Amino acid sequence: MLRFVRKLFAQNILLQVGSLNSVGIAVRVVCGLITSKLIAVYLGASGMALLGDLRNFMSSLQSLGQLGVSNGVIKYTATYKKQPEALHKLVATVLKLPFLVSLGLGLIVVIAAPDLNTLIFENTADYTLIIRLAGIVLPLFTLQTLLLNILNGLGDFRKVIFINMSINASGVLLSALLIVWFSLFGAMLALLLSGVLALGITLVFLRKYFAKAKELFLLKIDASLLKKLGSYAFMSLFSAVAAPWVYIAIRQYIIETDGIENAGYWDAMLRLSDYYLMFATSILTLYVLPKLATSGTQTNLRKVTTDFYRSILPFFALGLLVIFLLKGFIIRLIYDASFLEMQSIFIWQLAGDLVRVASLVIAYEIIAKRMVKTFVITQLISLSIIYFSSVWLVSRYGFVGAGMAHLLSYSLYLLVVVILFRKKLFARITQ
């Protein structure tokens, strides 16, 4: 049996990446669970809801600062990794321009902080200082993320995973200290300072490349590369601007109609969802996107999708079933008994996440092949469905309605992408 398992792993690179990735995910999840426990104990459900608003804002801000080129960087780094001159031009371009843009965007955030505070938190609290700090640290978040994108594209999976493990382990210590000392303000501060810490750790791992830094700095920004990355930028920026703000709007609607405590339960479910989705979505980024990006065959999408459905999706589905069966225990472990009311949303969120992963492995073809119009239309439809269905269902079923809307949205999204790529999905696989 042991020999069979070794042979299976030796022949399947997806399982090799997945197994090492699982260790990294385990570290990240454990660190996340510790942080969630601290938030539940020291901040409660209401604090979790407000922290969720800041997380969504930072997600949007980071993507804007990166000019939405992350997926494009992975694709073209994978494409040019055996062409040193082209690769150097790419690295210089994707590090310089987004960093400069992040500086400008950060300045705008610092100046507009009072208005942004009203927009994000409405009349709940004044976190203008936190928003200003977000603008200050934004360029550092941008640089760190793009460096990891480059490593992803180069296929240096082990280094990426070890960097992330180090970041997570040190980040939880920072969060623990600041939450205990400064409560909700400390939790928000930890979220922002984690980016500074992450950049420092990333640079330590990449110190052997410092000799090339001066050479890359002297290279000019390549306009032709910007044109190639432009479609990726547009796609990512669309999502960056729309998706986090949709979730902020849904959270505010839950607060208004069902109370801030129930909004916190929904956000607690989203945090838990983020933990178990890390495994599947990181495999998509580490393996699926580079595979789709570097292949020109018509049948490649079916092959990649089939491999993923056979190798990864069954384990993911089994994990979701275990989570559902142990939901009461998990809530007490991660949060505390005061969060048990969130059990009612589990079935909807778990089912929605299974459908989500099944749809994303197909939908990554849109990103890999730069299908801008298709991307915008499908995202617009998906976000519209999740927002309006959330409003309708939350008004009838409370915060659980947001979970129902999640399942509805991704079920329709899966149907749409299967129809869009039906010819590739149902074509014969060629060697």
Give structural notes.
Its main location: membrane. This protein has about 425 residues and is mainly α. The protein has 2 domains: about 20-235, no CATH class; about 260-425, no CATH class. Helices cover about 85% and strands about 0% of the residues. Helix 7 (about 130-155) crosses helix 8. The longest helix has about 50 residues, at about 155-205. The protein is globular, with a radius of gyration of 21 Å. The mean pLDDT is about 85.
Task: List key phrases describing it.
mainly alpha, 431 residues
Write the layout of secondary structure elements.
Blueprint: H1 2-11, H2 13-42, H3 44-65, H4 70-80, H5 84-111, H6 113-121, H7 128-154, H8 157-205, H9 210-218, H10 223-258, H11 260-294, H12 300-311, H13 313-325, H14 327-334, H15 346-368, H16 372-397, H17 400-420, H18 422-425
Transmembrane segments: 90-113, 129-148, 160-182, 188-210, 231-255, 275-294, 315-335, 347-367, 374-393, 399-421
Keywords: Cell membrane, Membrane, Transmembrane, Transmembrane helix
InterPro entries: Poly_Biosynth_Transport (IPR050833), WzxE (IPR044550)
